[in-house]
């Protein structure tokens, strides 16, 4: 069985180098922000997703990195209920909202940090304050949209 870290590196390697760099940078920033969160990884048909959850249940996901050939976003699972005084959140669905992530640097800005903090605060289950998070590869679709442009 391939270790999750190696599988994750392989999923990211499917992307154009510029998009892969943003994914890796975003993952580093979020891992630093929520070191005890469980990473739940999906390499699905439409998107490559790394969710940050308080438990192994996908429904407990607070936010996730979502990547496609055209770029990277930070998706908030319950984004429609987050306070967004800066008007950053995109989308109009009943539950999910997202921001575009052209560079991982955006994740360090105060408005985005406030959104992340609010998502952590509204989580149904509290984020552990001790220990270390880990990575679970949840699903890999055999058929996928192209991960590179062109």
Describe this structure in words.
- It is a single chain.
- This protein is of the alpha+beta class.
- The protein has one domain.
- It has helices spanning 4-13, 17-33, 110-121, and strands spanning 38-43, 48-53, 61-68, 71-76, 97-100, 135-140.
- Strands 5-4-3-2-1-6 form a six-stranded mixed beta sheet.
- 32% of the residues are buried.
- The model has no long low-confidence stretch (mean pLDDT 91).
Q: What is the fold's blueprint, element by element?
A:
Elements: H1 4-13, H2 17-33, E1 38-43, E2 48-53, E3 61-68, E4 71-76, E5 97-100, H3 110-121, E6 135-140
Parallel strand pairs: 1-6
Antiparallel strand pairs: 1-2, 2-3, 3-4, 4-5
Q: Distance between the terminal alpha carbons, to the nearest Å?
A: 32 Å
Strand order of the largest sheet: 5-4-3-2-1-6
Query: Would you list the SSEs in sequence order as H and E?
Result: HHEEEEEHE
Structural category:
alpha+beta
- Give me the Rg, rounded: 15 Å
- How many domain modules? 1
What shape does the CA trace take? globular
Mean pLDDT across every amino acid position: 91
By DSSP, the count of extended strands is 6
Query: Largest sheet, described in full?
Result: 6 strands, mixed
Measured as a percent range, the helix fraction is 25-40%
| Percentage of β-strand residues | 15-25%
